[in-house]
């Protein structure tokens, strides 16, 4: 394996605002770091090297990310303030100080998202893809728009007028709404208020009228007179509400976890508003009216130029391959490419490493389907976190159960925003005869493990799949993840220990795996301390890691200690990072990068020099307190030397990336690298496996 990249001083292309909210702190602020991550996503929307429709997707992702940030993180800060919490965050700021920073930067970010989106629309118009306004249509198109409205839109709408007998209506989370002002029944009275929900999701946000694309809300606003026939419509204004969706429940008091989660989902719908987005043409009096009715602070009202709800603009209904990324075709792994050999025969000879989406997720689905159909397979046990809607995965487990195999599906009902889908899967599998476990009290099960038990030669043999990503074929085409298929007996024994612990709370003894909250944290820290001792003895000590988030104080302190001992640390962290790299005397040996691109970087790799015999782990856990203390996570060692080298080659390629990489400096500022070398393009063109 080639030597890992040494320290370098790349030329910055552009910078985001600093994440160092408290200059006296050894840590970066978590919320500011998240906002810096979203700025990096927005930079992809600005980057003219990306095709226009892909830039629009990045802008939509940026808006969607911000929605979730408000629903969870900002909502949590509001709850802390309401509860009188005076405990500072990791970087020393009080909740009210963090909220002030968040409000300041999110207003600027939302304005920037809309500005970028409008610029992309203008560039699309030059390419013949235009979003029209109603007042730009000719008479024939207006007639067609009216006919479409009356036949396809108005039947779905529900006008809700507020008066003494009709209270202000409930405004659902993330819904687009029209605030309609109607002339008062008595000419000199104030106008009446009505709310009409824009039915995005039920109907497409973009409507094709005679080959011209229009926003659904524009068509609705132009025809409110049809909905309120007999009343004069004075105006219609767009607004949007974001609510707190971070609900808690007492698992210790829950006799039925499934019923408890279902009840929590119903309560989530009625969380307190944490953000009100309004168009900047909304009269001030109407803004105050909405504030008062929804009990929301003036500081949480965001006046914007539009379009609101950019997260709904993920894909335009246009067929323009020239304005999109070239179609990506995942590789078929050479060792499991043929149809004539059983996957279990292949795994008896060698382990298979898959790098998604460059290697096809079909191999994982085929592994499960072969296990379900094979009469020699006795049992299939699997953890499921975010499943998606794939019928093949559900069908394989269901058919295996119906065939009389022992099927255990450990379905995490508390996977945020996927609870309803997971509840549906749990009920279907139970009806098929599978053993369904709904979760563990006090913990989320985030591990990605499948265990297959097969009768062979008078005995039993275990086959295991371990991954960094969910069993979700859709995201497997969009996220970068790693999968290991193996018949290693000791990893099979560890997987057996895991499932016995998950289903029976049996005390587990793992041979190789690091499992949170049992041994992952201590295992990571012990290995960093070993590297520090190698450095103190004058050896070549290093640690290379990749994860989505780095926020856990104990892990950051362990990295600081390793750096101070002389360990060379290089990490690729896509999202939030609370560690300050490059600070003399504290972290001068630590480099932090963030890598973004066409695919969402999602894999987790942790590699240690180990005195010249590198040790590599991969799995489901980020270095966050929730992952290491409050989730069941699995990190597996890479025991086969040539596969271990392939993991290190993956890290070397990503650390050499210039196209989508940003470097974090000691001041908490991310600098974009200049250059066109793309790790993702190299993986797509040259399969490493």
From TrEMBL:
UniProt record similarity statement: Belongs to the polyphosphate kinase 1 (PPK1) family.
Catalytic reactions on record: [phosphate](n) + ATP = [phosphate](n+1) + ADP
Molecular function terms, GO-annotated: ATP binding; metal ion binding; polyphosphate kinase activity
Organism: Deinococcus radiophilus
Xref: Pfam families: PP_kinase, PP_kinase_C, PP_kinase_C_1, PP_kinase_N
Record InterPro entries: PP_kinase, PP_kinase_C_1, PP_kinase_middle, PP_kinase_middle_dom_sf, PPK_C_dom2, PPK_N_dom, PPK_N_dom_sf
Record protein name field: Polyphosphate kinase
SUPFAM superfamilies documented for this protein: Phospholipase D/nuclease, PHP14-like, PPK N-terminal domain-like
Polyphosphate kinase N-terminal domain segment(s): 27-131
Polyphosphate kinase middle domain span: 142-316
Domain of life: Bacteria
Keyword set includes Signal: no
Gene encoding the protein: ppk1
Residues engaged in binding ATP: 65, 479, 574, 602
Nucleotide-binding is among the record's keywords: yes
Function: Catalyzes the reversible transfer of the terminal phosphate of ATP to form a long-chain polyphosphate (polyP).
Top-level enzyme category: transferase
Biological process according to GO: polyphosphate biosynthetic process
């Amino acid at each position: 394996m080639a030597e890992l990249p040494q320290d370098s001083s790349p030329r910055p292309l552009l910078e985001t605002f600093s994440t160092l909210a408290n200059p006296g702190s050894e840590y970066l602020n978590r919320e500011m770091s998240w906002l810096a991550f979203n700025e990096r996503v927005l930079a992809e929307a600005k980057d003219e090297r990306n095709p226009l429709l892909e830039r629009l997707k990045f802008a939509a992702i940026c808006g969607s990310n911000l929605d979730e940030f408000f629903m969870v993180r900002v909502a949590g800060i509001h709850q802390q303030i309401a509860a009188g919490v005076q405990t500072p965050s990791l970087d020393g700021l009080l909740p009210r100080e963090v909220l002030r920073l968040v409000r300041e930067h999110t207003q600027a970010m939302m304005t920037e998202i809309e500005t970028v989106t409008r610029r992309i629309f203008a560039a699309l118009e030059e390419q013949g893809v235009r979003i029209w306004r109603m007042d730009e249509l000719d008479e024939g198109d207006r007639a067609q728009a009216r006919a479409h409205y009356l036949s396809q839109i108005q039947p779905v709408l529900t006008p809700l007028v507020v008066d003494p007998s009709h209270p202000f209506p409930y405004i659902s989370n993330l819904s687009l709404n029209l605030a309609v002002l109607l002339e008062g029944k008595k000419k000199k009275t104030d106008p009446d208020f009505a709310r009409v929900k824009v039915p995005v999701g039920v109907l497409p946000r973009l409507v094709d009228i005679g080959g011209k694309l229009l926003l659904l809300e524009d068509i609705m606003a132009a025809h409110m007179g049809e909905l309120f026939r007999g009343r004069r419509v004075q105006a219609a204004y767009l607004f949007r509400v974001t609510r707190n969706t971070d609900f808690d429940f007492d698992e210790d008091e829950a006799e039925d976890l499934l019923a408890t989660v279902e009840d929590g989902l119903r309560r989530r719908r009625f969380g307190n508003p944490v953000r009100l987005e309004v168009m900047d043409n909304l009269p001030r009096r109407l803004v105050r009216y909405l504030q008062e009715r929804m009990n929301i602070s003036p500081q949480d009202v965001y006046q914007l130029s539009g379009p609101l709800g950019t997260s709904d603009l993920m894909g335009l209904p246009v067929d323009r391959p020239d304005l999109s990324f070239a179609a990506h075709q995942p590789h078929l792994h050479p060792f499991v490419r043929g149809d004539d050999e059983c996957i279990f025969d292949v795994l008896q000879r060698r382990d298979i490493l898959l790098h998604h989406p460059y290697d096809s997720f079909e191999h994982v689905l085929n592994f499960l389907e072969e296990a379900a159909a094979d009469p020699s397979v006795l049992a299939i046990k699997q953890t499921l976190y975010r499943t998606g809607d794939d019928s093949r995965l559900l069908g394989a487990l269901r058919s295996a159960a119906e065939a009389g195999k022992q099927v255990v599906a450990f379905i995490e009902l508390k996977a945020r925003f996927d609870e309803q889908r997971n509840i549906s899967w749990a009920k279907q599998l139970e009806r098929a005869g599978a053993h369904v476990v709904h979760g563990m009290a006090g913990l989320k099960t985030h591990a990605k493990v499948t265990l297959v038990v097969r009768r062979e030669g008078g005995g039993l043999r275990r086959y295991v799949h371990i991954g960094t990503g969910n069993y979700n074929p859709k995201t497997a085409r969009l996220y970068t993840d790693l999968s290991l298929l193996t018949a290693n007996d000791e990893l099979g024994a560890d997987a057996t220990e895991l499932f016995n612990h998950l289903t029976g709370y049996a005390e587990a003894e793992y041979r190789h795996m690091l499992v949170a909250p049992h041994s992952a944290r201590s295992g990571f820290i012990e290995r960093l301390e070993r590297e520090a001792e190698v450095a103190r003895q004058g050896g070549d000590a290093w640690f290379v890691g990749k994860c989505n988030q780095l926020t856990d104080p104990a892990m950051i302190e362990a990295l600081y200690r390793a750096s101070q001992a002389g360990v060379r640390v290089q990490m690729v962290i896509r999202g939030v990072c609370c560690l300050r790299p490059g600070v003399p005397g504290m972290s001068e040996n630590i480099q932090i990068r963030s890598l973004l691109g066409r695919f969402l970087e999602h894999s987790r790799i942790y590699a240690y020099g180990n005195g010249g015999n590198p040790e590599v782990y991969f799995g489901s856990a980020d270095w966050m307190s929730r992952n290491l203390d409050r989730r069941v996570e699995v990190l597996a060692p890479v025991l086969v030397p040539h596969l271990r080298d392939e993991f290190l080659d993956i890290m070397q390629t990503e650390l050499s990336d210039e196209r989508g990489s940003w470097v974090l400096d000691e001041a908490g500022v991310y600098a974009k690298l200049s250059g066109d070398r793309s790790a993702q393009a190299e993986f797509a063109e040259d399969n490493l496996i």
